[in-house]
């Protein structure tokens, strides 16, 4: 009832709600309670019915992140590396990350492993959509950082991008970071899989939950400063051990076509 | 007192097309930064694109881009946004026109992209008057929309018959069509996207035969202010969200709802039709009037006849 009253009160005389002046950051789309609820349900259903809609997964993640983002931000503030990330707000895309330089690094380093992973899966870091629905700019950055680091989580857990392994990584992220969308995806998405593929998940999910839960919070890792670090040493430092080996398929064509795998 | 103020604010936001519009609901975020004024003395003419102000030359391709991006999901989106009611409006529109009542006619359906109106005209003539000679030429500026229309017509009995044709054309300049060709000119939910409404009306007048009818179905202003507020809420809140969810494209649907608010109100548009040389009913709503409101003014049918 209050939401309805608020909704009726907001436009026309009171002034623009989504005006440029009301935006906390350029891509911000402020929502009122009704819109927030509507979009949460809508994007959740859309993501469940068509998981390839990366933009829907991303939006659902933002809309459900609510109380978890401040906790994540506080965890970041508790460590030096996390504070550096929040201060400098590094971004991961082909403009900020020197792909050529990383390719030149020796095998066994994080940077080289990342490039190898990108090539093996046929994806590019440029397809992460901007955050729209988080009101606080710093929390929006935390969400954006999570989205852009998602590929690095894939890399460090040696998981390809096929649907089953995405679910594994989501379970890992849920145990590690606590974002509701990751948990909901890990629970809901397997229903879309055939029984055979769901069985395969049984090998990985226990590992994902145990490893994700016991590892250090991955949001506190300043990846850009660690490109040269030996990846096995990094994994030991973070408390991550290898999962059962995955089955890698053919690379996707993200780098060559205009298909977007936004979000995640 | 307050309502009068509100209404006067609303009227002023409708009528002025000032360079910095008083926007109630902002608005499509400006992808291109506001263009600096050119050095020479001649300023480019501007028009509205939703609540943005753009150079006239740009509006056409901006609109084209909007419809290219919505084309494949256009019908689904219409159903979602209007909860299926747009079908009733289109049915009412065609029923009012009674195509085929006085014998087979040649129709031009402008901005008819996906073929909703064309199909209804042909079906109406066939079912009510056993008319298989009435022909509709569908014209649209956007090739993707025309393709959707063509694909839909392939599922009907009119495919590959002379009863329907699809042509890419700009409503403001259809010089490939000789004057005095058509008995009926329809434009449904398209005229608000055109850069210059008077130019469209002039072309319509030219291509119609003497005695021909001009009919326009378009979103308009709701007459009841309370319902209008609720409608605003729905438009600016729900429709862009539906665009995000169904089509992954918030901006195009934001444009669509803004373009509705920019369109002239019923009496103004009726006057524009009259100024273009059409003979309309009296300046009022309903029987004998120049326009008919549907669902309280959410959509309105304007008609005019070319007498000479």
TrEMBL record, chain A:
Catalytic reaction equation(s): a 4-hydroxy-3-methoxy-5-(all-trans-polyprenyl)benzoate + H(+) = a 2-methoxy-6-(all-trans-polyprenyl)phenol + CO2
What topology does it adopt in the membrane? Peripheral membrane protein
Q: Any idea which UniProt keywords this protein has?
A: Lyase, Membrane, Metal-binding, Mitochondrion, Mitochondrion inner membrane, Ubiquinone, Ubiquinone biosynthesis, Zinc
**Residues where Zn(2+) binds:** 150-151, 154, 166
Essential cofactor(s): Zn(2+)
Annotated Gene Ontology cellular components are: extrinsic component of mitochondrial inner membrane
Q: What is its main location?
A: mitochondrion
Pathway membership: Cofactor biosynthesis; ubiquinone biosynthesis
InterPro entries attached here? Coq4, Coq4_euk
| Gene Ontology molecular-function annotations | 4-hydroxy-3-methoxy-5-polyprenylbenzoate decarboxylase activity; zinc ion binding
Name where it's found. Answer: Mitochondrion inner membrane
Respond yes or no to whether keyword Metal-binding is given for this record.
Answer: yes
Task: Note whether ATP-binding occurs among the keywords.
Answer: no
* Subunit organization: Component of a multi-subunit COQ enzyme complex, composed of at least COQ3, COQ4, COQ5, COQ6, COQ7 and COQ9.
Identify its protein family: Belongs to the COQ4 family.
Describe the function of this protein. Answer: Lyase that catalyzes the C1-decarboxylation of 4-hydroxy-3-methoxy-5-(all-trans-polyprenyl)benzoic acid into 2-methoxy-6-(all-trans-polyprenyl)phenol during ubiquinone biosynthesis.
List the protein's name: 4-hydroxy-3-methoxy-5-polyprenylbenzoate decarboxylase
Q: Which organism is it from?
A: Thelephora terrestris
From TrEMBL, chain B:
**Species of provenance:** Thelephora terrestris
Enumerate the residues binding S-adenosyl-L-methionine: 114, 140, 170-171
The subunit field of the Swiss-Prot or TrEMBL record says: Component of a multi-subunit COQ enzyme complex, composed of at least COQ3, COQ4, COQ5, COQ6, COQ7 and COQ9.
Q: Its biological function? A: Methyltransferase required for the conversion of 2-polyprenyl-6-methoxy-1,4-benzoquinol (DDMQH2) to 2-polyprenyl-3-methyl-6-methoxy-1,4-benzoquinol (DMQH2).
CDD domains recorded = AdoMet_MTases
Q: In which pathway does it act?
A: Cofactor biosynthesis; ubiquinone biosynthesis
Protein family per UniProt: Belongs to the class I-like SAM-binding methyltransferase superfamily. MenG/UbiE family.
Q: Tell me what this protein is called.
A: 2-methoxy-6-polyprenyl-1,4-benzoquinol methylase, mitochondrial
Where is the secretion signal located? none
- Where located? Mitochondrion inner membrane
* GO BP annotations, alphabetical order: methylation
Instruction: Give the enzyme's EC designation.
Output: 2.1.1.201
Where do the record's region annotations for Disordered lie? 1-44
A GO cellular component annotation here is: extrinsic component of mitochondrial inner membrane
Gene Ontology molecular functions = 2-methoxy-6-polyprenyl-1,4-benzoquinol methyltransferase activity
User: What reaction is this protein's catalytic activity?
Assistant: a 2-methoxy-6-(all-trans-polyprenyl)benzene-1,4-diol + S-adenosyl-L-methionine = a 5-methoxy-2-methyl-3-(all-trans-polyprenyl)benzene-1,4-diol + S-adenosyl-L-homocysteine + H(+)
Give the chief site where it resides.
mitochondrion
């Amino acid at each position: 009832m209050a939401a309805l009253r608020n909704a009726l009160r907001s436009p026309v005389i009171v002034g623009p709600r989504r005006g440029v002046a009301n935006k906390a950051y350029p891509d911000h789309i402020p929502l009122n309670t009704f819109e927030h609820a509507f979009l949460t349900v809508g994007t959740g259903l859309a993501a469940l019915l068509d998981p390839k809609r990366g933009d829907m997964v991303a939006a659902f993640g933002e809309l459900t992140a609510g109380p978890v983002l401040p906790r994540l931000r506080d965890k970041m503030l508790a460590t030096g590396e996390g504070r550096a990330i929040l201060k400098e707000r590094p971004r991961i895309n082909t403009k900020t990350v020197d792909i050529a330089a990383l390719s030149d690094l020796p095998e066994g380093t994080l940077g080289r492993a990342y490039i190898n992973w990108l090539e093996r899966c046929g994806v590019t870091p440029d397809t992460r959509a901007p955050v729209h629905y988080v009101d606080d700019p710093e929390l929006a950055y935390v969400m954006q950082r999570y989205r852009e680091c998602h590929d690095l989580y894939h890399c460090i857990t040696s998981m390809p991008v096929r649907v089953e392994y995405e679910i594994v990584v989501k379970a890992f992220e849920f145990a590690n970071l606590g974002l509701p969308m990751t948990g909901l995806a890990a629970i809901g998405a397997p229903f879309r899989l055939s029984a055979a593929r769901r069985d395969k998940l049984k090998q990985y999910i226990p590992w994902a939950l145990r490893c994700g839960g016991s590892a250090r919070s991955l949001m506190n890792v300043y990846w850009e400063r660690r490109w040269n670090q030996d990846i096995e040493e990094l994994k030991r430092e973070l408390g991550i051990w290898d999962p059962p080996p995955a089955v890698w398929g053919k690379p996707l064509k993200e780098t060559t076509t205009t298909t977007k795998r936004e979000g995640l | 007192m307050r309502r009068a103020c509100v209404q006067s604010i609303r009227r002023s936001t409708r009528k002025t097309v000032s360079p910095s519009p008083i926007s109630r609901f902002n608005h499509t975020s400006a992808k291109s930064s506001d263009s600096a004024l050119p050095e020479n003395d001649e300023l480019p003419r501007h028009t509205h694109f939703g609540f943005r102000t753009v150079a006239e030359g740009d509006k056409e391709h901006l609109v084209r881009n909007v419809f290219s991006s919505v084309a494949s999901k256009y019908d689904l989106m219409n159903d979602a946004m209007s909860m299926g009611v747009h079908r009733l409006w289109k049915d009412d529109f065609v029923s009012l026109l009674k195509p085929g009542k006085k014998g087979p006619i040649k129709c031009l359906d402008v901005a008819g992209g996906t073929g909703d109106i064309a199909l209804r005209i042909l079906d109406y003539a066939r079912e009510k008057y056993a008319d298989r000679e009435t022909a509709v030429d569908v014209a649209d500026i956007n090739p993707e929309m025309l393709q959707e229309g063509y694909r839909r017509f392939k599922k009907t009995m009119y495919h590959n018959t002379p009863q329907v044709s699809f042509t890419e054309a700009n409503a403001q300049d259809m010089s490939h069509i000789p004057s005095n060709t058509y008995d009926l000119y329809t434009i449904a939910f398209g005229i608000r996207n055109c850069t210059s409404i008077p130019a469209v009306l002039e072309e319509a007048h030219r291509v119609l035969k003497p005695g021909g009818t001009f009919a326009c179905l378009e979103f308009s202003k709701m007459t009841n202010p309370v319902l209008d507020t609720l409608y605003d809420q729905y438009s600016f809140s729900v429709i862009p969200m539906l665009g995000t969810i169904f089509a992954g494209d918030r901006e195009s649907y934001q444009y669509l709802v803004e373009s509705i608010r920019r369109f002239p109100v019923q009496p103004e548009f009726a006057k524009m039709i009259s100024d273009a040389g059409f003979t309309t009913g009296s300046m009022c709503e309903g029987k004998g009037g120049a326009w008919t409101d549907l669902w309280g003014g959410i959509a309105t049918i304007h008609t005019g006849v070319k007498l000479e």
